[in-house]
Design brief:
With 249 residues, this protein is an alpha/beta fold. The chain has a single domain (27-246), classed as Rossmann fold, CATH 3.40.50.1110. It is built from eight helices and nine strands. The protein has helices at residues 3-18, 25-35, 49-64, 88-99, 129-146, 166-183, 198-201, 232-246, and strands at residues 43-47, 70-74, 103-107, 116-117, 123-124, 154-159, 192-196, 211-213, 219-221. It has a five-stranded parallel beta sheet with strand order 2-1-3-6-7, sandwiched between helices. Strand 8 and strand 9 (219-221) form a beta hairpin. The chain is globular and about 55 Å long.
């Protein structure tokens, strides 16, 4: 084979392989952003311990940018699987009826890595993976349905960010998968959307990150030492990202 023929053959191989190259995560992220609607005020932020600090930072950022009214509500240690301890179904209905939001940001699921209480009594054990997923899907379906109530025009369910410990990462992925399935349902697909926290808190999708660089080049601790929650700086970073993406020109 002469040099010209060899060069042509190599070029053909490169072109062919590029057609099957893995998609660029950043390109996929941009496509997902294009699908997100323009939110309207009033804004309500609700959730568990993951929303406590984030909601506070969102309130501050929105107030400074005159995105009003915007209020948050969070309950530490609460979740969707133990309504006897805290009934999120009733609380979400109450918050939507009281505040009449047009946009709702939801961050729930952090404390759901435990047995699920059943309405008629009994529990689904955490070890019963198939039954647990099916039951949890029904719970999430109810939660996403609530985002179509009242005057709500758009609901954003915040996807769990990457976790440091494997057991928490596995649970976060389960929550994200179930929420994605339910948000895609025909009844909800034009109202309920997913917002990815991982893109704001990880340098690489699927990889836990403790530190991020600020726009000025400063190293910031964005996660709590527990490897689950956000730090103050992490909350500020996500709040500013949401504000910039949805409200700043």
């Amino acid at each position: 084979m002469n040099k010209t023929t060899l060069t042509a053959a190599m070029s053909a191989i490169i072109l062919a392989s590029s057609a099957f190259a893995a998609p660029d995560p950043k390109e996929n992220e941009e496509k997902e952003k294009e699908k997100l609607p323009k939110p309207e005020t009033p804004v309500l932020m609700i959730g568990d311990s993951m929303m406590r600090l984030l909601g506070h930072e969102m309130e501050k950022a929105f107030k400074k940018a005159d995105v009003q009214p915007a209020i948050s509500y969070s309950s530490l240690g609460s979740g969707l699987v133990r309504p006897s301890a805290f009934d999120w179904t009733a609380k979400i209905t109450e918050l939507i009826a009281t505040n009449e939001p047009h946009t709702v940001f939801v961050c729930l699921g952090a404390n759901d890595r435990q047995p699920i209480e059943l309405p008629g009594g009994g529990v689904v054990r955490y070890e019963d993976a198939a039954e647990r997923r099916a039951t949890y899907s029904q719970i999430i379906r109810g939660g996403t349905d609530q985002l179509t109530e009242g005057k709500v025009k758009t609901g954003f369910w915040l996807r769990r960010p990457d976790m440091r410990d494997a057991v928490n990462q596995e649970h976060a992925q389960l929550v994200n998968e179930v929420v994605k399935e339910q948000a895609a349902d025909e009844k909800r697909k034009d109202v309920v959307y997913l917002y990815d926290l991982a893109s704001a808190l990880s340098r690489r999708p699927g990889k836990y990150t403790q530190y991020m660089m600020s726009p000025t080049g400063q190293s910031l601790t964005v996660r709590d030492p527990d490897g689950v929650h956000l730090s103050v700086e992490g909350g500020k970073m996500v709040a500013q990202k949401i504000l910039k993406e949805f409200w700043e020109k």
